[in-house]
Amino acid sequence: MRRFSLFLGLALAAIGCATPQRPVLYPNATLEKVGREQAQRDIDACLAAAEQDIGKGNDSDAERIAKGTARRTATGAATGAAVGAAVGRGAARGAAGGAAGAAAHTVVGAILRPERRRGGPEPVFRHYVDRCLHDRGYDVIGWRRP
């Protein structure tokens, strides 16, 4: 169990280092006129304004994975306890096995299949930033990690 806890901690730390998504701008006249550096400062200003006005845009990947791991671990423990009691292996042993399996499934899935994670900011946050940038003359074509 100690090895699993160490693995879980290292995996969440690695995922937590991922950078958040940012808007991607279409190369229109405004972007050509002001340049990429100024555009990045404008993006930063719109992101800060959105966070100030409507709150944090999204949980980090590590926060989402931690919440999912906790939820699935509890479900796995309950299922494992029931199965362990039913087959005569003991509820505690079944609960521990179920919890470990569920947690491992969540973390390994997040690492190996990052495309399945719900990514990006919440829609309201994203729309706020998109509108802020539009008001400054930019065209946002999407969001992605830098």
Q: What's the number of extended β-strand segments?
A: 2
- Radius of gyration equals 21 Å
Helix content: 55-70%
Mean pLDDT: 78
Quaternary structure state of the chains depicted: single chain
Detail the poorly predicted runs: none
Your description of this structure?
The structure is a single chain. With 146 residues, the chain is mainly α. It has helices spanning 2-16, 29-34, 36-54, 61-87, 91-112, 123-135, and strands spanning 22-25, 140-144. It has six helices and two strands. The chain has a two-stranded antiparallel ribbon. The chain starts with a helix and ends with a strand. The model has no long low-confidence stretch (mean pLDDT 78).
Short description:
The chain has 146 residues and is mainly alpha-helical.
Task: Describe the SSE topology.
Blueprint lengths: L1 H15 L5 E4 L3 H6 L1 H19 L6 H27 L3 H22 L10 H13 L4 E5 L2
Antiparallel strand pairs: 1-2
Q: Any descriptors?
A:
146 residues; two-stranded antiparallel ribbon; 70% helix; mainly alpha
